[in-house]
Amino acid sequence: MLECIVTKFGGSSLASDEQFRKVRSILELEPTRQYLVPSAPGKRYPSDEKVTDLLYACYEQASAGKPFADQFIKIRERYLSIAQLLHLKVDIEAALSEVEQGIAGGRSRDWCASRGEYLCGMLVADYLGWRFVDAADGIRFRDDGTLDDERTQELLSGLLKDRKPSVVPGFYGAKENGEVVTFSRGGSDITGALVARAVNADVYENWTDVSGFLMADPRIIESPAEISSITYKELRELSHMGASVLHEDAMFPVHRAGIPTNIRNTNKPYHPGTLISKNAPNEVSVPTITGIAGHKGYSVIYVEKNMMNSEVGFGRKVLSVLEEYGISFEHMPTGIDSMCVVVNSELLNPHREEVISRLEKLVEGSGSVTVNDNMSIIATVGRGMVHNCGTAARLFGAMSRARINVRMIDQGSSELSIIVGVNDCDFEATIHAIYHEFVE
Ligand code: ASP
Is the CB of 430 within 6 Å of ligand 1? Predict the structure, then answer.
């Protein structure tokens, strides 16, 4: 029996009075759902605007000394219609006027953006009859704008220790002096994870508009299989490669605290969604692969130098050139007298000439530096790989049957993923070949 569940509802789950009603029935299904973290109202239909985007637009206008009434009226209308249609008592008119005055009065960009969640939290709390806990009192940022994790844990667990059902708005917190700071976009996921950790929840439910993760990008594979269970480590590998449903930083607090995250669909409340946990316990059979994700647009910097193998510190020198230009590397397969550094082309391009000439200096007279662009990286991720021999053979067999040239291979030391580099033009075909080898 689960004793305490923290729920986070995304913007589309709170976009209208109808969505609010769905949220309430989800909470009624399971009384141990005691904490709720809302996003700001999102899109009701594809061409609709998100409240957060409107708030940023108001701020931009106001800070340029221009009127923002056209944008603000849309925000006002969203909140007022939800409040009216649900017959809420909270004085949302007054709260909206305060926000409008704050924007006009030159409040900060973060403060303006945070009001989307703040106002939404007020509505949700009133609708459910739950307590409203301002995230500014529980989520603490340092003066440099980074999250103060320890202080946040202390403050939030103190505020919520009486176990009263509470609404904590997502996306923002405050510095010690009260100045509001937001996370990056999509950051309500992080708030949810921090609340889950603070109350030591049994599970952190993240309610959105999809039924969890898919094994591959549906724009490439038609109706890919759903992932019912995944570990935090696997998810990290997949989200790094672009598969995203959850904010990347939302995994750490719950992962470390051993709390599973369950991605659920507000529009399909009985669908079990995807369960993300530390080690996917109680599994009867583990699928060999859990998911495939990838990205186009990488460059491979190929550095060759005679006797590189015996020169201690050469790799460090290469990497420090990249470090100087703020370029992080993705992979680094090495040979005896050569090394490849795979980097995102977008990061390399602004400094390409300088980086190459600096590297050429390092190998002067005894080597060469070449850059190959238009490479894709595809990660095939699966905790089941450890238990199955022959996974790599199947993967490369499938690629060879599809006549795809493998340009780079990297198997993570964790045996959790096999990474291949292919030409950008082979990207989709590679995902098809791997998916169909393992899934159908
Ligand atoms: N409302 C914010 C955004 O649109 C934060 C969130 O929804 O998580 O990014």
Answer: no
Rounded Cα–Cα distance for residues 137 and 131 (Å): 14
Pocket lining: 247 vs ligand 1, CB cutoff 6 Å: no
How many residues in total does the chain contain?
440
Write the pLDDT tens digit of every residue in 132-179.
999 999 999 999 999 999 999 999 999 999 999 999 999 999 999 999
Q: What is the four-CA torsion angle of 362, 368, 374, 380, rounded to 10 degrees?
A: -80
Angle at 105 between CA 103 and CA 110, to 5 degrees: 45
Over residues 393-436, the pLDDT tens digits come to 999 999 999 999 998 888 766 678 999 999 999 999 999 999 99
Residue nearest to atom 6 of ligand 1 (CA): 186
Nearest to 225 by CA among 211, 239, 235: 211
> Which atom of ligand 1 is closest in space to residue 187's alpha carbon?
8
Q: Which three-class secondary structure state does DSSP give residue 219?
A: coil
Q: Is residue 170 lining ligand 1, measured as CB closer than 6 Å?
A: yes
Atom of ligand 1 nearest to the CA of 184: 9
Cα 73–chain centre separation: 31
Please name the residues in contact with 160: beta carbons below 8 A apart, sequence gap of 6 or more. 35, 133, 138, 166, 168, 195, 198, 199
Rounded to the nearest 10°, the torsion over CA 293, 183, 80, 266 is: 30
Q: Cβ of 334: how many Cβ atoms within 10 Å?
A: 13
Residue 266 DSSP label: T
User: What is the Å distance from ligand 1's center to 186 Cα?
Assistant: 4
For residue 200 the two structure tokens come to 């030591």
Neighbouring C-beta atoms of residue 258, cutoff 10 Å = 12
> What's the 409 CA to ligand 1 centre distance in angstroms?
37
Question: Is the minimum distance from the CB of 187 to ligand 1 under 6 angstroms?
Answer: yes
CA distances from 275 to 37, 200, 280, 344, 438 (A): 19, 17, 8, 31, 21
Report how far residue 115's alpha carbon sits from residue 99's, in angstroms, rounded to the nearest whole number.
Answer: 7
Nearest ligand 1 atom, CA 189? 8
Which atom of ligand 1 sits closest to the CA of residue 11?
7
pLDDT of residue 282: 67
For residue 183 and ligand 1, the question of a CB distance below 6 A is answered with: no
Q: Which of 50, 191, 209 to mutate to test the pocket of ligand 1 (most atoms within 8 A of CB)?
A: 50
**Tokens (6 digits) for 248:** 């990347």
